[in-house]
Amino acid sequence: MGATTPSGPTTKPRLPYLRSYHRLLRWPSTTYVSLTINVISHGKYPTPFAGISVFYGKSFELCKKNCCVEGLISWFCELGQPKRLDYGFIGYQVPPMPRATRSARKRGTFRKRTEDNQMCAFDLLATVAGNIWLEKESSPTSSNTSNEKNGCAFVQKAWENEDKPVKIEPSFQESSDKRVLVSELVHQAGDQNFSYRESPLPQNDVHSGLASVLTTECSEVFVAEKLVNGENNNEMGSFTSNVDLGFSGYRDSGNCKLDCENKLIIKDDLHKTGKVPIGIGADMCSLEDPVVCDGRPPALVSSDSSVKVPLCGDHIPCSSFPAIRDDVKIVSRDDDENSSGCTHPSTIAKSSRPVSRIADRRIRKILASKYWKVSSKLKEETLSNVDGDLKPIFRNRKGYYKRQRSQMNIPFKKRKIFQRSSVSNSDRWISYGGNSHSTEKGINGDDLGSCLKMHGASGTSSSLVGQHTSIQSRDSYVKLRIKSFRVPELLIEMSETATVGSLKRAVMEAVTSILGGGLRVGVLLQGKKVRDDNKTLQQTGIAHDYPLDALGFTLEPNPAQNPPPLCPRDSSCMLPCDTPQPLTRYPLDSTVVHQGDSHASPELHAANLGTFIESDHDSAPSPTDTSVDKSTTDSKALVAVSAMDVDELAVVPVHRKLKRSEMAQRRIRRPFSVTEVEALVQAVEKLGTGRWRDVKLRAFDNAKHRTYVDLKDKWKTLVHTARISPQQRRGEPVPQELLDRVLSAHAYWSQQQAKQQLKQQPETCLLL
DNA sequence: GTTAGGG
DNA sequence: CCCTAAC
Question: Which GO terms fall under molecular function for this chain's record (predicted)?
Answer without folding.
Answer: telomeric DNA binding
